[in-house]
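Lecture notes, unit on protein representations.

Consider one protein chain, 432 amino acids long.
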Amino acid sequence: MSLDLLLGLQWGDEGKGKIVDAITSNYDIIARFQGGPNAGHTIEFDGHKHVLHTIPSGIFNDNSINIIGNGVVIDPAIFLKEINGLNKFNLDLNKNLFISKRAHIILPTHKIIDASSEASKGKKKIGSTLKGIGPTYMDKTGRNGIRVGDIIDDSWQIKYNNLKEKHLKLISNFNQKVELSLDQLEAEFFEGIECIKSFKLIESENYLNNAIIEGKKILAEGAQGSLLDIDFGTYPYVTSSNTTSAGACSGLGVPPNKIKNIRGIFKAYTTRVGSGPFPTELFDSVGEKIRDVGHEYGATTGRDRRCGWLDLVALKYSIQINGVTELNIMKSDVLSSIEKLLVCTSYTIDGEEINFFPYDIDSKDVIPNYIEFKGWDKDITNIKNENDLPLELIEYIDYIESFVQVPIKLISVGPDRKQTIYRNKWTILSFL
C-alpha cells in the first residue's frame, strides 16, 4: 500500500484540520510530518470546537493511529496542555498516539531566544509566533538539538543543562528584555517531559514503512502552508521547515515512490498572518467583511489574519512544486453576499506582465491583474449537494479548476465536518 498526503497551498490556515478530521475514517494511520505548536488545526463537530497544535487531526477517530513524526518539533508544555484539553472527550490516547524518538524538543531557552531575536529586529520583524520553533530547527541543523529519544537516556539532564548554558550566553548577546520567566517556563517544561514519557515512543520511520508493507492506509498531515516553506516560500517571511510534499519524506522517513495522492487545501480567498508580501491583500470594507465572517483570527496566536482575493498565480505555483493531484476548496461560504469577486490571474512587475511566482516578489512592486466574477447572495452552509449550489459559485470553482488544471473534489461550505460536499463528477473546462 502507499501513502496519501494532505497539505496547505497558501500561507497556512487553509482548513487542513477539518479535512483530516472529515476523511480520517478512510485511513489507519495519520502522521504529522513537520512544524510545531506554531500550527493550529481547528476541528468542529457535534457542537464542539477544538484546536490542535502538535497532535495529528485524526485523534478523534478511535480506529486510527496518530503519529507525531520526526520532522515535528515538540514543546512539552504545550503538548501537556493539548493532552489535558482532550481529556473531556474520553479518548484512549495511550492506545492511538505515538511519538517519534527522532522528533526534536523545544526548550524554554528556545522561546527566550526567539523572543529576544525578534525584539532585536525592530521594524524588520518577520512575524514569528515566538514559540521557539526557529531556534529549535537551528539547533537541529546545527547538530546541537535534543530529541525525544534523549529524554529516556540517563544522560538526559546533562544534555539539557549543557544546551541551556549555550543558550543563555546567546541570549545575553541580544541585550533585549523579554517578558518571559525561565523558572516558570522550566517548571511547565519538565512537567510536559513527564507527560511525553508516558506515551509510546517509537522509531516512526520503521513503524510507517512496515505499515506500508502490511497494506495500511496512511495519511501524512502537513502544517502551515506551502508559501511558508523555508525554501520555496516568501523568504524570509517563512517558517523553519519544509511545508511542501518533499517535507513528508524527510519528516516521516518514507520514500517518495510510496506517495500516491497529494491533496491540496486552499481557501476560496487568501489570508496570511504576520509580515511578508501579499499581492492581493485587501485594505477596505470587503477585506474586513471576509475577516469577520470567516473568523480570520489565528488559532495559535489570536492575531488578525490579513485577507485578500484569491491569488491563482500563487496557487498554481504551490500546486506545481507539490505535485498536487486533487484540490479541496475551503470557506466558500464566507464569500456569500459579496456582490463582486476578483481573482488574480497574473502580476505586473516593472511594466511587464508575468504569470509565474517570482523569486523577488518581496522586493518589487507587484501589481496583481484581476478578472471579475459575479457573487452570490445565498446562504450555502446547509447545502448537501453540488447541484444545489448557486450557479455563480459553480462558475467560480470551474474557472479555478480550469486555470490550475487539477480537479477540485471537495467543497467546504462551513466549519463542521458535516458541511462538506464531495464531488462525484468533475470536468476541467477550458476557459483560457
